[in-house]
Write a structure and sequence with these properties.
By secondary structure, the chain is an alpha+beta fold. The chain has one domain. The protein has seven helices and seven strands. The protein has helices at about 1-30, 80-85, 95-100, 115-120, 140-145, 150-165, 165-180; strands at about 35-45, 50-55, 105, 110, 135, 200, 205-210. It has a three-stranded antiparallel β-sheet. Strands 3-5 form a two-stranded parallel sheet. Mean pLDDT is about 85; it is low at about 190-210.
Length: about 210
């Protein structure tokens, strides 16, 4: 039932959002002439590795400095990228992953391969997230969007894995639509001058370079 629902909603969403794809692609291209999409390899259900597309929100070559698990500083985000991140429209191309079956509309966020590899030994329970198909949205995305702490988000993800239901999925989708309409998703991190040159250490003890 979940897969049928995902496929039907993704097909409808793709048809209805086609004009937005064209509009966003033109806006991203015109801002700095860089590529429209950003491709990233992620870990899905049962360890399946797949490729996702996102509308590019960072300046060209920013991925050489900004790690996948870091909140990018505002100096790295394009003007169009600010809008796309706040409305989560940068994730729109992942509808294609839902159609292919790599993802669902609701589930744990699919972690970038580099992020998963960096943390899986330190947090053994991280692999339990792979019991569910990764999602475009979920409990962690809706209720834990303000935190970058991987253990905090893991608690939300495991809560979803244990309580999956069609009704819960519908509730999370509706909440996600509301957040998109209100532009309340991710915002670029403002960097204080005193933070320049510092390194960020997570609660998990992993030092992440700025």
């Amino acid at each position: 039932m979940k897969r049928v629902f995902d496929f039907a909603l993704a097909a409808l969403g793709l048809a209805m959002s086609a004009p937005l794809w064209a509009l966003f692609a033109i806006a991203v291209k015109l801002e700095d002439g860089g590529p429209v999409f950003y491709r990233q390899m992620r870990v899905g259900q049962k360890g399946h590795v797949f490729s996702v597309l996102k509308f590019r929100t960072l300046r060209r070559d920013a991925d050489k400095t900004v790690r996948p698990w870091m909140a990018p500083g505002e100096e790295w985000v394009t003007r169009m990228g600010v809008f796309l991140r706040r409305t989560a429209m940068d994730e729109l191309p992942q509808i294609l992953n839902i159609l292919r079956g790599d993802m669902s509309f609701v589930g744990p966020r699919a972690m970038p391969v580099s992020e998963f590899e960096a943390f899986k030994e330190k947090i053994p329970s991280l692999s339990r997230r792979l019991e569910a198909r990764p999602g475009l949205t979920g409990i962690a995305q809706v209720y834990g969007k303000a935190t970058r702490n991987i253990r905090a988000k893991l608690r939300y993800d495991l809560l979803y894995v244990g309580k999956q239901s069609f009704l819960l999925d519908i509730q999370l989708i509706l909440l996600s639509v509301l957040l998109t309409l209100r532009g309340r998703w991710e915002q670029p991190k403002r960097r204080h001058p005193k933070d320049e040159g510092k390194r960020t250490q997570t609660e998990d003890g992993v030092v992440l370079p700025d």
